[in-house]
Specification:
By secondary structure, the protein is an all-alpha fold. About 70% of the residues lie in helices and about 0% in strands. It has one domain.
Length: about 60
């Protein structure tokens, strides 16, 4: 059950990053943009998250890298 919940969270994070990681020029067109400080946190931690994650979660995260 925990792997399923973790996979759902990983898919949600992946989709949020793919849809709301907008560059400065495109920010006016987006309804929600991930803040620069949150982007830095994600950048600092995404590789470590992939390294320690299970294989199913790793496959989901690898689409971001």
């Amino acid at each position: 059950m925990l792997v399923i919940v973790t996979a759902v969270g990983a898919v949600y994070l992946k989709n949020m990053i793919l849809h709301h990681w907008v560059s400065c020029g495109d920010a006016a067109a987006a309804e929600f943009v991930i803040h620069d400080s949150a982007k830095n946190i994600i950048r600092d931690n995404i590789v470590d998250a992939v390294v320690v994650s299970e294989s199913l979660i790793r496959l989901i995260y690898l689409k971001l890298i």
